[in-house]
């Protein structure tokens, strides 16, 4: 799977200047981007120089709980995305390299306290408002307690029973990447 991602990235000869999620703007030359397969364990790839992620694709969709279970099989968890640069790189990869459209589950939730969004792994607050969230979201619906990245690059809340793509993160490799 990693080889396909790298081939797709090499075949795309374009510099993208992308604005997603309001003020989250970055420039990404995909043609010069490489994913070091030796840093992250299978099936993860290095994204953003510090984060090992697996992005489900080719019809691999799950509800939120099943996605979390899928990640645990590979000793990971649903991803924590706390900054614009990583959000942008993930969105660029999903939309412009993998050509995936749809929503992607990540590891945030407000199931414990409605309106209080936290990353399940760390229990730290999910960034709120622009530039992360889709305008008008989270919308306060008590049936939408799990976090996903919408196909437009914003965070949005979703019903955990819906099936979507998902993004897993390997947290065990973090120390070896960042020093």
UniProtKB/TrEMBL annotation:
It comes from the Eukaryota. CDD domains: CLECT. Gene3D superfamilies: Mannose-Binding Protein A, subunit A (3.10.100.10). This is C-type lectin domain-containing protein. Residues 1-22 form the signal peptide. Residues 48-169 form the C-type lectin domain. SMART domains: CLECT. The keyword ATP-binding does not apply. Keywords: Signal.
